[in-house]
Design goal:
It is a single chain. This protein is an alpha/beta fold and 418 residues long. 42% of the residues lie in helices and 17% in strands. It has a seven-stranded mixed beta sheet with strand order 4-10-9-8-7-5-6, with helices on both faces. The chain has a four-stranded antiparallel beta sheet with strand order 13-14-17-16, with helices on one face. Strands 1-2 form a two-stranded antiparallel sheet. Helix 2 packs antiparallel against helix 10, helix 4 packs parallel to helix 5 and helix 11 runs parallel beside helix 14. The longest helix has 28 residues. The radius of gyration is 23 Å and the shape is globular. The relative contact order is 0.16.
Length: 418
């Protein structure tokens, strides 16, 4: 893969940060956007901007066609049986909230169990906690082992006929752990439970096969997948979407409204209340086209090299001064590297790296139950993507070495002063 050629497709990578060339290593939070995505959104607004679905004039028909073509594109990416199973939403958070709200009205009753894991993003925890608070469901968490892998024995202990939903991330946004979704689907289905998959961290790095995974629902976000912010997709089995009540009411999701009654449109329109983000959907379609042209195998191979270089260099140059969290086997994780520097707060690490133009994320990463399980208040996370280079990884490690040296010196000065 020609990384230098790819980098030219991303205008933002040409800018500087604090007097240094920008080194962007926060793609797990949001990815940068190639010019083709920016141009796709711009073309939509410049040439066919109109509201969709109900307009009978030509411009509205063109906008509707572009919107539905984007839905078809996402369905192909997900290997979905039909495009009508794809619901456009703002992202993974809204998608999981929709599923939780709708299932809470249709399926779940007091005492039913939802099973999730301690490695989940808050987006796959809080919607279920709301059902616990207001609907009386039982919410249980599957533990992880000391290497950051899901504890399947703990899953088996907690999975029973009371369990109606298993909600799990395909890839941890902190540990990079790749979960065995097909195996989890089989176990969930064996007790009659539905499987809800958070694919926010997996979709940017691999094509998704919702049928092959055995999922009942799967959600991902466009902004992590080279696409625009404010757009994402929920895939759901057609029979489930058909039977589920809508989570929001308003325009575009109804068949008829009268003072004494309302009837709803068929899915996916039933779940897309209000004016949708049509330009965002068009941009997401362009992003998926771009990723496919680069090639998924090339992307995975490149990211694997960056992951290996990061972990190896951290161990070789920092030794006991750094702790990297997550599975040690490369095949069990994606290129997400969360770490702790001895004696240095993660926010200090991120701030000092920013002085060098290096962008990483620090904090609890919207995964506080996982932080509690790991026994840390926060971590620093570097998450490279297809546009990052091995040289940038070296700059990251150089920066970490300098930070460790700086804080050692500060402590030595403090000891002398005391």
């Amino acid at each position: 893969m020609d990384v230098e050629r790819i980098r030219k497709d991303f205008p933002i990578l040409a800018r500087s940060q604090n007097g240094h060339p920008l080194v962007y290593l926060d793609s797990a939070a949001t990815s940068q956007k190639p010019s083709v995505v920016l141009s796709a959104e711009e073309r939509f607004y410049e040439t066919i901007n109109a509201n969709v679905r109900r307009g009978v004039y030509g411009l509205s028909v063109e906008a509707t066609d572009a919107y539905e073509a984007a839905r078809e594109r996402v369905a192909r990416f997900l290997h979905a049986p039909r495009a009508s199973e794809v619901v456009f939403l703002r992202g993974t958070t809204e998608a999981i909230n929709l599923v939780a709200t709708s299932l809470g009205r249709m399926l779940l009753k007091k005492g039913d169990r939802v099973l999730t894991t301690v490695m989940e993003h808050h987006s796959n925890i809080v919607p279920w906690q709301l059902l616990r608070e207001f609907g009386g469901i039982d919410l249980a968490f599957v533990d992880i082992d000391d290497h950051g892998r899901l504890d399947l024995a703990d899953l088996d202990r907690k999975l029973d006929r009371k369990t109606k939903v298993v909600a799990v991330t395909q890839v941890s946004n902190v540990l990079g752990t790749v979960n065995p979704i097909r195996e989890l689907a089989d176990r969930a289905h064996s007790v009659g439970a539905l499987l809800v998959v958070d694919a926010a961290q997996s979709a940017p790095h691999q094509p998704i096969d919702v049928v092959g995974l055995g999922a009942d629902f799967l959600a991902f976000s466009g902004h992590k997948t080279l696409g625009p912010m404010g757009i994402g997709a929920l895939w759901g089995r057609a029979d489930l979407l058909r039977s589920m009540p809508p989570a929001q009411g308003g325009g575009e999701m109804i068949r008829e409204v009268h003072q004494d009654r309302v009837s709803f449109a068929e899915a996916p329109a039933k779940f897309e209340a209000g004016t949708p983000n049509v330009a965002g959907a068009v941009g997401l379609s362009a992003a998926l086209d771009y990723l496919e042209r680069v090639g998924w195998e090339s992307i995975r191979s490149h990211e694997s090299r960056l992951l290996a270089r990061t972990v190896r260099a951290a161990q070789d140059r920092l030794g006991d001064d750094i702790t990297v969290f997550g599975p040690e086997t490369p095949g069990e994780r994606e290129a997400v590297v969360s770490f702790r520097l001895k004696g240095v707060h993660p926010h200090d690490v991120a701030s000092l790296l920013d002085d060098r133009g290096i962008c990483v994320r620090a904090g609890h990463h919207c995964a506080q139950p996982l932080m509690e399980r790991l026994g840390v208040p926060a971590l620093t996370r570097a998450s490279p993507y297809l546009y990052n280079t091995e040289g940038e990884i070296d700059q990251l490690i150089d920066g970490l070495v300098a930070i460790v040296a700086k804080f050692r010196g500060d402590r030595a000065v403090a000891r002398v002063a005391s």
